[in-house]
Amino acid sequence: MDLRGSIEMYLNKVFRCALHQRSRTLASLNFQGKRASQIRHSTTSTVDADGVSFEPNRNFVTKLEFLEPKIEDAIPIYRVFDNAGKVIDPSQDPQFSDDTLIRMYHAMKTLNIMDQVMYDAQRQGRVSFYMTNYGEEGCHIGSAAALDDQDLVFGQYREAGVLMWRGFKLEEFMDQCYANLNDPAAGKQMPVHYGSRKLNFVTISSPLATQMPQASGAAYALKRTHPGLCVICYFGEGAASEGDAHAAFNFAATLNAPCLFFCRNNGYAISTPVGDQYKGDGIAARGPGYGMLTIRVDGNDTLAVYNATSKARQIAVAENRPVLIEAMTYRVGHHSTSDDSSAYRSVDEVDYWSRTDDPIARFFRYMVNERKCWSEVQDKAFTKDSRKKIMTAFKNAEKRNKPSPSLMFTDVYKEIPPHLQQQQKEMIDHVRAHKDHYPLDRHEPI
Ligand SMILES: Cc1ncc(C[n+]2csc(CCOP(=O)(O)OP(=O)(O)O)c2C)c(N)n1
Ligand SMILES: [Mg+2]
Question: Which of 129, 173, 266, 439 is the most buried (most CB within 10 A)?
Protein backbone atom coordinates (compact mmCIF):
# COMPACT_ATOMS: atom_id res chain seq x y z
CA MET A 1 0.00 0.00 0.00
CA ASP A 2 1.35 3.44 -0.83
CA LEU A 3 1.85 6.25 1.66
CA ARG A 4 -1.41 7.96 0.79
CA GLY A 5 -3.39 4.71 1.08
CA SER A 6 -2.01 3.93 4.50
CA ILE A 7 -2.66 7.46 5.69
CA GLU A 8 -6.27 7.26 4.56
CA MET A 9 -6.70 3.90 6.27
CA TYR A 10 -5.17 5.13 9.49
CA LEU A 11 -7.10 8.37 9.55
CA ASN A 12 -10.27 6.27 9.43
CA LYS A 13 -8.96 4.06 12.21
CA VAL A 14 -7.74 6.98 14.29
CA PHE A 15 -11.07 8.74 14.22
CA ARG A 16 -12.93 5.57 15.13
CA CYS A 17 -10.38 4.76 17.81
CA ALA A 18 -10.50 8.30 19.21
CA LEU A 19 -14.29 8.19 19.46
CA HIS A 20 -14.18 4.79 21.13
CA GLN A 21 -11.49 5.95 23.55
CA ARG A 22 -13.43 9.08 24.36
CA SER A 23 -16.66 7.25 25.13
CA ARG A 24 -14.78 4.78 27.34
CA THR A 25 -13.11 7.65 29.18
CA LEU A 26 -16.39 9.47 29.66
CA ALA A 27 -18.04 6.31 30.95
CA SER A 28 -15.29 5.65 33.48
CA LEU A 29 -15.19 9.27 34.62
CA ASN A 30 -18.94 9.39 35.06
CA PHE A 31 -18.64 6.31 37.18
CA GLN A 32 -15.95 7.95 39.34
CA GLY A 33 -17.89 11.20 39.45
CA LYS A 34 -14.98 13.38 38.21
CA ARG A 35 -15.37 16.85 36.74
CA ALA A 36 -15.44 17.50 32.99
CA SER A 37 -12.20 19.51 33.20
CA GLN A 38 -10.40 16.33 34.20
CA ILE A 39 -11.41 14.37 31.12
CA ARG A 40 -8.56 15.54 28.91
CA HIS A 41 -5.85 14.43 31.27
CA SER A 42 -7.27 11.11 32.34
CA THR A 43 -6.27 9.24 29.19
CA THR A 44 -2.55 10.03 29.49
CA SER A 45 -1.66 10.22 33.19
CA THR A 46 -1.47 7.29 35.60
CA VAL A 47 -3.84 6.89 38.52
CA ASP A 48 -2.24 7.33 41.98
CA ALA A 49 -3.04 5.48 45.25
CA ASP A 50 -6.00 7.79 45.99
CA GLY A 51 -7.45 7.09 42.58
CA VAL A 52 -6.48 10.60 41.41
CA SER A 53 -5.26 10.78 37.84
CA PHE A 54 -5.21 14.55 37.29
CA GLU A 55 -2.03 16.26 38.39
CA PRO A 56 -2.41 20.03 38.24
CA ASN A 57 0.36 22.61 38.27
CA ARG A 58 0.96 23.44 41.99
CA ASN A 59 3.27 26.39 41.46
CA PHE A 60 1.37 28.80 43.79
CA VAL A 61 2.63 32.34 44.56
CA THR A 62 1.39 35.11 46.85
CA LYS A 63 2.56 38.03 44.74
CA LEU A 64 -0.25 39.55 42.65
CA GLU A 65 1.42 39.88 39.31
CA PHE A 66 0.28 39.84 35.69
CA LEU A 67 2.45 38.66 32.87
CA GLU A 68 3.34 41.75 30.85
CA PRO A 69 4.58 41.02 27.32
CA LYS A 70 7.72 43.08 26.76
CA ILE A 71 9.52 43.78 23.54
CA GLU A 72 12.89 42.98 25.12
CA ASP A 73 11.59 39.50 25.92
CA ALA A 74 10.78 38.86 22.25
CA ILE A 75 11.87 35.44 21.05
CA PRO A 76 15.25 35.86 19.33
CA ILE A 77 15.89 35.08 15.67
CA TYR A 78 18.40 32.36 14.89
CA ARG A 79 20.94 33.27 12.19
CA VAL A 80 23.99 31.71 10.54
CA PHE A 81 25.16 34.49 8.22
CA ASP A 82 24.52 38.21 8.13
CA ASN A 83 23.18 40.32 5.28
CA ALA A 84 26.61 40.40 3.70
CA GLY A 85 26.67 36.59 3.65
CA LYS A 86 29.34 36.49 6.36
CA VAL A 87 29.09 33.58 8.80
CA ILE A 88 28.66 34.92 12.33
CA ASP A 89 29.60 31.82 14.32
CA PRO A 90 31.60 29.29 12.27
CA SER A 91 30.31 26.39 14.41
CA GLN A 92 26.88 27.02 12.88
CA ASP A 93 27.96 26.71 9.25
CA PRO A 94 26.47 23.41 8.00
CA GLN A 95 29.57 23.03 5.78
CA PHE A 96 27.74 21.94 2.65
CA SER A 97 29.81 20.70 -0.24
CA ASP A 98 30.19 23.17 -3.12
CA ASP A 99 27.89 20.99 -5.23
CA THR A 100 25.11 21.14 -2.66
CA LEU A 101 25.47 24.91 -2.28
CA ILE A 102 25.31 25.35 -6.04
CA ARG A 103 22.26 23.11 -6.26
CA MET A 104 20.51 25.17 -3.57
CA TYR A 105 21.43 28.41 -5.29
CA HIS A 106 20.25 27.12 -8.67
CA ALA A 107 16.89 26.20 -7.19
CA MET A 108 16.38 29.63 -5.59
CA LYS A 109 17.43 31.44 -8.74
CA THR A 110 15.33 29.24 -11.04
CA LEU A 111 12.27 29.79 -8.87
CA ASN A 112 12.87 33.53 -9.06
CA ILE A 113 13.20 33.54 -12.85
CA MET A 114 10.16 31.27 -13.27
CA ASP A 115 8.19 33.77 -11.16
CA GLN A 116 9.26 36.66 -13.40
CA VAL A 117 8.21 34.77 -16.55
CA MET A 118 4.87 33.60 -15.15
CA TYR A 119 4.03 36.97 -13.61
CA ASP A 120 4.58 38.64 -16.98
CA ALA A 121 2.59 35.89 -18.70
CA GLN A 122 -0.37 36.67 -16.48
CA ARG A 123 -0.02 40.37 -17.20
CA GLN A 124 -0.12 39.57 -20.91
CA GLY A 125 -3.32 37.56 -20.41
CA ARG A 126 -1.70 34.21 -21.20
CA VAL A 127 -2.55 32.60 -17.84
CA SER A 128 -5.42 33.63 -15.61
CA PHE A 129 -3.63 33.99 -12.28
CA TYR A 130 -0.25 33.66 -10.62
CA MET A 131 1.45 34.04 -7.22
CA THR A 132 5.12 34.90 -6.95
CA ASN A 133 7.47 33.71 -4.23
CA TYR A 134 9.82 36.72 -4.32
CA GLY A 135 11.80 37.17 -1.11
CA GLU A 136 10.82 33.77 0.33
CA GLU A 137 13.13 31.55 -1.71
CA GLY A 138 15.41 30.97 1.31
CA CYS A 139 12.51 29.61 3.38
CA HIS A 140 11.58 27.15 0.64
CA ILE A 141 14.98 25.78 -0.28
CA GLY A 142 16.48 25.89 3.23
CA SER A 143 13.59 23.87 4.66
CA ALA A 144 13.10 21.51 1.70
CA ALA A 145 16.78 20.57 1.69
CA ALA A 146 16.50 19.48 5.33
CA LEU A 147 13.71 16.97 4.70
CA ASP A 148 13.60 13.35 3.65
CA ASP A 149 11.97 13.09 0.20
CA GLN A 150 9.41 10.72 1.71
CA ASP A 151 8.27 13.30 4.28
CA LEU A 152 4.82 14.54 3.41
CA VAL A 153 4.41 18.21 2.52
CA PHE A 154 1.25 20.23 3.14
CA GLY A 155 1.69 23.66 1.56
CA GLN A 156 -0.40 26.82 1.64
CA TYR A 157 0.20 28.14 -1.92
CA ARG A 158 3.46 30.09 -1.76
CA GLU A 159 5.88 27.16 -1.54
CA ALA A 160 6.70 26.38 -5.17
CA GLY A 161 10.40 26.18 -4.26
CA VAL A 162 9.79 23.15 -2.04
CA LEU A 163 8.25 21.31 -4.96
CA MET A 164 11.04 22.46 -7.26
CA TRP A 165 13.66 21.14 -4.82
CA ARG A 166 11.90 17.76 -4.83
CA GLY A 167 12.16 17.52 -8.60
CA PHE A 168 8.91 18.93 -9.97
CA LYS A 169 9.84 19.83 -13.54
CA LEU A 170 9.50 23.26 -15.11
CA GLU A 171 6.99 21.83 -17.58
CA GLU A 172 4.93 20.40 -14.72
CA PHE A 173 4.65 23.88 -13.18
CA MET A 174 3.72 25.38 -16.52
CA ASP A 175 1.27 22.60 -17.46
CA GLN A 176 -0.60 23.20 -14.20
CA CYS A 177 -0.68 26.98 -14.68
CA TYR A 178 -1.90 26.58 -18.25
CA ALA A 179 -4.40 23.87 -17.22
CA ASN A 180 -3.48 21.94 -20.35
CA LEU A 181 -4.00 18.26 -21.04
CA ASN A 182 -0.93 17.35 -18.94
CA ASP A 183 -2.35 19.03 -15.85
CA PRO A 184 -3.25 16.15 -13.49
CA ALA A 185 -6.29 18.07 -12.24
CA ALA A 186 -7.42 18.72 -15.84
CA GLY A 187 -7.95 22.41 -15.13
CA LYS A 188 -10.15 22.03 -12.06
CA GLN A 189 -7.73 24.00 -9.90
CA MET A 190 -6.59 27.60 -10.18
CA PRO A 191 -3.01 28.16 -11.33
CA VAL A 192 -0.29 27.53 -8.69
CA HIS A 193 -2.44 24.94 -6.92
CA TYR A 194 0.15 22.26 -7.56
CA GLY A 195 0.26 18.77 -6.17
CA SER A 196 2.33 15.67 -6.76
CA ARG A 197 1.62 12.24 -5.38
CA LYS A 198 5.00 11.05 -6.66
CA LEU A 199 6.81 13.79 -4.73
CA ASN A 200 4.68 13.49 -1.57
CA PHE A 201 3.32 17.00 -1.95
CA VAL A 202 -0.36 17.24 -1.09
CA THR A 203 -2.35 19.31 -3.58
CA ILE A 204 -2.79 22.93 -2.53
CA SER A 205 -6.20 24.04 -1.38
CA SER A 206 -6.19 27.75 -0.74
CA PRO A 207 -9.04 28.17 1.77
CA LEU A 208 -6.69 29.29 4.52
CA ALA A 209 -5.38 26.85 7.12
CA THR A 210 -7.44 23.87 5.93
CA GLN A 211 -4.16 22.03 5.34
CA MET A 212 -3.15 22.41 8.99
CA PRO A 213 -5.42 19.93 10.83
CA GLN A 214 -4.96 17.55 7.89
CA ALA A 215 -1.21 17.79 8.44
CA SER A 216 -1.56 16.96 12.14
CA GLY A 217 -3.73 13.92 11.31
CA ALA A 218 -1.33 12.77 8.61
CA ALA A 219 1.62 13.15 11.02
CA TYR A 220 -0.20 11.01 13.57
CA ALA A 221 -0.87 8.40 10.89
CA LEU A 222 2.76 8.47 9.75
CA LYS A 223 3.94 7.93 13.31
CA ARG A 224 2.00 4.67 13.36
CA THR A 225 2.68 3.42 9.84
CA HIS A 226 6.02 4.92 8.81
CA PRO A 227 8.13 5.68 11.88
CA GLY A 228 11.11 7.82 10.94
CA LEU A 229 9.11 10.06 8.60
CA CYS A 230 7.37 13.31 9.39
CA VAL A 231 5.01 15.89 7.94
CA ILE A 232 5.89 19.49 7.21
CA CYS A 233 3.04 21.97 7.13
CA TYR A 234 3.67 25.43 5.65
CA PHE A 235 1.38 28.32 6.46
CA GLY A 236 1.42 32.10 6.55
CA GLU A 237 1.23 34.27 9.64
CA GLY A 238 -2.20 35.38 8.42
CA ALA A 239 -3.46 31.80 8.16
CA ALA A 240 -2.34 31.30 11.76
CA SER A 241 -5.29 33.48 12.83
CA GLU A 242 -7.71 30.81 11.59
CA GLY A 243 -9.34 28.46 14.10
CA ASP A 244 -7.97 25.53 12.12
CA ALA A 245 -4.44 26.58 13.13
CA HIS A 246 -5.38 26.16 16.78
CA ALA A 247 -6.97 22.76 16.15
CA ALA A 248 -3.88 21.65 14.27
CA PHE A 249 -1.38 22.77 16.92
CA ASN A 250 -3.36 21.30 19.75
CA PHE A 251 -4.04 17.96 18.05
CA ALA A 252 -0.41 17.55 17.01
CA ALA A 253 0.84 18.42 20.49
CA THR A 254 -1.57 16.21 22.42
CA LEU A 255 -1.27 13.30 19.98
CA ASN A 256 2.54 13.59 19.93
CA ALA A 257 2.55 13.79 16.16
CA PRO A 258 5.82 14.34 14.26
CA CYS A 259 4.69 17.46 12.44
CA LEU A 260 6.86 20.45 11.56
CA PHE A 261 4.73 23.58 11.49
CA PHE A 262 6.62 25.99 9.29
CA CYS A 263 5.24 29.52 9.46
CA ARG A 264 6.36 31.89 6.72
CA ASN A 265 5.99 35.19 8.50
CA ASN A 266 6.30 37.54 5.52
CA GLY A 267 4.80 40.63 7.12
CA TYR A 268 1.47 40.67 5.27
CA ALA A 269 -1.74 38.73 4.72
CA ILE A 270 -2.74 40.38 1.43
CA SER A 271 -3.14 43.98 2.69
CA THR A 272 -3.17 43.20 6.42
CA PRO A 273 0.22 43.96 7.99
CA VAL A 274 1.34 41.93 10.99
CA GLY A 275 0.64 44.92 13.25
CA ASP A 276 -3.06 44.37 12.56
CA GLN A 277 -2.83 40.57 12.48
CA TYR A 278 -1.66 39.94 16.04
CA LYS A 279 -0.74 41.82 19.19
CA GLY A 280 1.65 39.30 20.74
CA ASP A 281 5.17 38.21 19.85
CA GLY A 282 4.38 36.75 16.45
CA ILE A 283 3.56 33.10 15.86
CA ALA A 284 6.52 31.57 17.75
CA ALA A 285 5.19 32.92 21.05
CA ARG A 286 2.18 30.64 20.67
CA GLY A 287 4.27 27.44 20.51
CA PRO A 288 4.96 27.06 24.25
CA GLY A 289 1.26 27.61 24.92
CA TYR A 290 0.58 24.39 23.07
CA GLY A 291 3.53 22.62 24.69
CA MET A 292 5.42 22.67 21.40
CA LEU A 293 9.14 22.94 20.85
CA THR A 294 9.60 26.26 19.07
CA ILE A 295 12.21 28.27 17.22
CA ARG A 296 12.24 31.60 15.40
CA VAL A 297 14.63 31.78 12.50
CA ASP A 298 15.84 34.33 9.96
CA GLY A 299 13.88 33.15 6.91
CA ASN A 300 16.20 35.00 4.52
CA ASP A 301 19.19 33.07 5.82
CA THR A 302 18.91 29.82 3.88
CA LEU A 303 21.53 28.08 6.03
CA ALA A 304 19.76 29.06 9.27
CA VAL A 305 16.47 27.76 7.86
CA TYR A 306 18.24 24.55 6.90
CA ASN A 307 19.79 24.08 10.37
CA ALA A 308 16.54 24.84 12.17
CA THR A 309 14.44 22.52 9.99
CA SER A 310 17.03 19.77 10.06
CA LYS A 311 17.24 19.79 13.87
CA ALA A 312 13.47 20.12 14.19
CA ARG A 313 13.00 17.12 11.92
CA GLN A 314 15.50 15.06 13.88
CA ILE A 315 13.66 15.78 17.14
CA ALA A 316 10.19 15.36 15.66
CA VAL A 317 10.86 11.83 14.42
CA ALA A 318 13.08 10.73 17.32
CA GLU A 319 10.71 11.96 20.04
CA ASN A 320 7.39 11.96 18.21
CA ARG A 321 6.49 15.54 18.83
CA PRO A 322 5.55 18.57 16.75
CA VAL A 323 7.89 21.52 16.33
CA LEU A 324 6.94 25.08 15.43
CA ILE A 325 9.33 27.08 13.24
CA GLU A 326 8.61 30.74 12.59
CA ALA A 327 10.68 32.00 9.67
CA MET A 328 10.90 35.79 9.49
CA THR A 329 10.88 36.96 5.91
CA TYR A 330 9.28 39.55 3.64
CA ARG A 331 6.77 39.21 0.81
CA VAL A 332 8.51 41.26 -1.86
CA GLY A 333 5.90 40.66 -4.57
CA HIS A 334 2.25 41.60 -4.63
CA HIS A 335 0.06 39.05 -2.83
CA SER A 336 -1.02 37.66 -6.20
CA THR A 337 -1.76 38.94 -9.67
CA SER A 338 -5.14 40.07 -8.30
CA ASP A 339 -3.42 42.49 -5.92
CA ASP A 340 -1.65 45.83 -6.19
CA SER A 341 0.34 46.23 -3.00
CA SER A 342 1.21 49.88 -3.68
CA ALA A 343 -2.29 50.59 -2.37
CA TYR A 344 -1.27 49.63 1.17
CA ARG A 345 2.55 49.76 1.45
CA SER A 346 5.17 52.08 0.08
CA VAL A 347 7.38 51.21 -2.83
CA ASP A 348 10.29 52.40 -0.65
CA GLU A 349 9.53 49.70 1.90
CA VAL A 350 9.65 46.97 -0.73
CA ASP A 351 12.75 48.49 -2.19
CA TYR A 352 14.43 48.54 1.21
CA TRP A 353 13.85 44.84 1.77
CA SER A 354 14.94 43.85 -1.74
CA ARG A 355 18.13 45.86 -1.38
CA THR A 356 19.13 44.93 2.14
CA ASP A 357 17.78 41.48 2.88
CA ASP A 358 17.32 39.40 -0.23
CA PRO A 359 17.87 35.66 0.46
CA ILE A 360 19.30 34.95 -2.97
CA ALA A 361 21.76 37.86 -2.83
CA ARG A 362 22.84 36.87 0.68
CA PHE A 363 23.45 33.28 -0.40
CA PHE A 364 25.31 34.54 -3.46
CA ARG A 365 27.64 36.64 -1.28
CA TYR A 366 28.28 33.68 1.00
CA MET A 367 29.16 31.49 -1.99
CA VAL A 368 31.36 34.10 -3.64
CA ASN A 369 33.09 35.66 -0.64
CA GLU A 370 33.16 32.96 2.03
CA ARG A 371 33.22 29.74 0.04
CA LYS A 372 34.68 30.99 -3.23
CA CYS A 373 32.67 28.45 -5.18
CA TRP A 374 30.70 30.83 -7.43
CA SER A 375 31.36 33.95 -9.48
CA GLU A 376 29.62 36.78 -11.33
CA VAL A 377 30.54 35.16 -14.65
CA GLN A 378 29.06 31.79 -13.65
CA ASP A 379 26.01 33.61 -12.37
CA LYS A 380 25.37 35.42 -15.65
CA ALA A 381 25.76 32.20 -17.63
CA PHE A 382 23.44 30.30 -15.30
CA THR A 383 20.77 33.01 -15.40
CA LYS A 384 20.80 33.04 -19.18
CA ASP A 385 20.59 29.26 -19.44
CA SER A 386 17.89 29.00 -16.81
CA ARG A 387 15.74 31.63 -18.51
CA LYS A 388 16.10 29.74 -21.78
CA LYS A 389 14.95 26.46 -20.21
CA ILE A 390 12.01 28.19 -18.54
CA MET A 391 10.96 29.83 -21.80
CA THR A 392 11.10 26.48 -23.61
CA ALA A 393 8.91 24.84 -20.94
CA PHE A 394 6.59 27.83 -21.07
CA LYS A 395 6.17 27.72 -24.84
CA ASN A 396 5.59 23.95 -24.83
CA ALA A 397 2.93 24.26 -22.14
CA GLU A 398 1.24 27.11 -23.99
CA LYS A 399 1.07 25.09 -27.19
CA ARG A 400 -0.52 22.04 -25.62
CA ASN A 401 -4.24 21.49 -26.02
CA LYS A 402 -6.63 22.00 -23.13
CA PRO A 403 -8.32 18.93 -21.58
CA SER A 404 -11.67 17.66 -22.79
CA PRO A 405 -14.43 19.80 -21.22
CA SER A 406 -16.13 16.56 -20.05
CA LEU A 407 -13.32 16.11 -17.50
CA MET A 408 -14.74 19.03 -15.57
CA PHE A 409 -17.07 16.49 -13.93
CA THR A 410 -14.63 13.68 -13.16
CA ASP A 411 -12.29 12.92 -10.25
CA VAL A 412 -14.29 14.64 -7.53
CA TYR A 413 -16.48 11.62 -6.79
CA LYS A 414 -15.27 8.09 -7.47
CA GLU A 415 -18.40 7.61 -9.58
CA ILE A 416 -20.12 10.62 -11.05
CA PRO A 417 -23.46 10.97 -9.21
CA PRO A 418 -26.67 11.13 -11.34
CA HIS A 419 -27.26 14.86 -10.90
CA LEU A 420 -23.74 15.64 -12.14
CA GLN A 421 -24.10 13.17 -15.00
CA GLN A 422 -27.19 15.13 -15.98
CA GLN A 423 -25.26 18.42 -15.85
CA GLN A 424 -22.41 16.90 -17.82
CA LYS A 425 -24.82 15.81 -20.55
CA GLU A 426 -26.46 19.24 -20.66
CA MET A 427 -23.06 20.92 -20.92
CA ILE A 428 -21.96 18.62 -23.75
CA ASP A 429 -25.25 19.14 -25.66
CA HIS A 430 -24.97 22.89 -25.17
CA VAL A 431 -21.37 23.11 -26.34
CA ARG A 432 -22.10 20.92 -29.39
CA ALA A 433 -25.14 23.03 -30.30
CA HIS A 434 -23.12 26.27 -30.05
CA LYS A 435 -19.73 25.00 -31.11
CA ASP A 436 -18.96 28.13 -33.11
CA HIS A 437 -18.84 30.08 -29.85
CA TYR A 438 -16.30 27.83 -28.11
CA PRO A 439 -12.59 27.34 -28.94
CA LEU A 440 -13.04 23.58 -29.31
CA ASP A 441 -10.04 23.30 -31.60
CA ARG A 442 -7.89 24.11 -28.56
CA HIS A 443 -9.43 21.27 -26.51
CA GLU A 444 -9.22 17.53 -26.54
CA PRO A 445 -12.40 15.99 -27.99
CA ILE A 446 -15.45 16.43 -25.81
C1 LIG B 1 -10.60 30.98 4.89
C2 LIG B 1 -10.06 32.02 3.95
N3 LIG B 1 -10.27 33.33 4.22
C4 LIG B 1 -9.78 34.27 3.39
C5 LIG B 1 -9.09 33.92 2.27
C6 LIG B 1 -8.56 34.98 1.32
N7 LIG B 1 -7.10 35.02 1.44
C8 LIG B 1 -6.32 34.38 0.54
S9 LIG B 1 -4.71 34.53 0.90
C10 LIG B 1 -5.01 35.50 2.25
C11 LIG B 1 -3.87 36.03 3.08
C12 LIG B 1 -3.08 34.96 3.77
O13 LIG B 1 -1.93 35.51 4.33
P14 LIG B 1 -0.79 34.65 4.93
O15 LIG B 1 -1.36 33.44 5.60
O16 LIG B 1 0.08 35.51 5.74
O17 LIG B 1 0.00 34.07 3.65
P18 LIG B 1 0.81 34.90 2.54
O19 LIG B 1 -0.16 35.20 1.42
O20 LIG B 1 1.36 36.10 3.17
O21 LIG B 1 1.86 33.98 2.03
C22 LIG B 1 -6.38 35.69 2.41
C23 LIG B 1 -6.98 36.51 3.47
C24 LIG B 1 -8.92 32.53 2.01
N25 LIG B 1 -8.25 32.09 0.96
N26 LIG B 1 -9.40 31.61 2.87
MG1 LIG C 1 1.83 36.48 5.21
Answer: 266
